[in-house]
Amino acid sequence: MAYIETNRPISAIFADLVSQSTALVRKEGQLARAEMSEKIGEIGMALGLVVGAAMLLIPALVILLLAAVAGLAAVGLAVGWASLIVGGVALVIGLALLAIGVRRLKAGRFIPTKAIARLQRDAAVAAQQVRNDHGIPECAA
Q1: What are 62-109's pLDDT values in tens digits?
Q2: What is the model's pLDDT at position 141?
Q3: Which residue in 86, 80, 81 sits closest to 66, CA to CA?
Q4: Which has the closest alpha carbon to 94: 136, 63, 57, 69?
Q5: DSSP string, 84-100
Q6: For 66, how many CA atoms within 13 A lie in the half-sphere containing its CB?
Q7: pTM over 0.90
Q8: What is the per-residue pLDDT for 13?
Q9: What does the angle CA 96 – CA 109 – CA 92 come to, to the nearest 5 degrees?
Q10: 10 Å Cβ neighbour count for 84?
Q11: What sign for the dihedral angle of Cα 70, 76, 79, 81?
C-alpha cells in the first residue's frame, strides 16, 4: 500500500489527482487501442476465410444448380420450368443467409466492451476516492 502524506495542502492533492487521472486515462486509451487492434485482426482473418470460401463455393454452387436443373429436366419437366424452380429456391435461401449475415454484422459487436467496463470501474473508484477525503484513509477509532 502506498504511503499517503496527511499534511499535504489541497493543491498538492489536487495536482496528484489530476496527474494520476491523466495517466489512468492514457493507459486505458492504450488498452482500448490494443483491444480494437485485436478485434480488427479477427475481422481481417474472418474476411480472408470468407473470400477463400466464396472462391470455391460459388462455382460449386453453380455446378450443383445446373445438375438440379438437369435432374428435373430428366424427370420430364421442361428446362425453363426446372430452371425457374431451382433459381427460385436458390434465391430464397440466399436471401435468408444474407439477412442472417447482416444481422450478425451489427456495429455493437465490435465495440471495445472490456475497455469501456474498465473505464467505468476506474471512474467509480476515482469518484469514491474524491468523496473519501480526497483519497486519505480514515483513521480507525
Answers
A1: 999 999 999 999 999 999 999 999 999 999 999 999 888 888 877 666
A2: 46
A3: 86
A4: 57
A5: HHHHHHHHHHHHHHHHH
A6: 6
A7: no
A8: 81
A9: 5
A10: 14
A11: negative
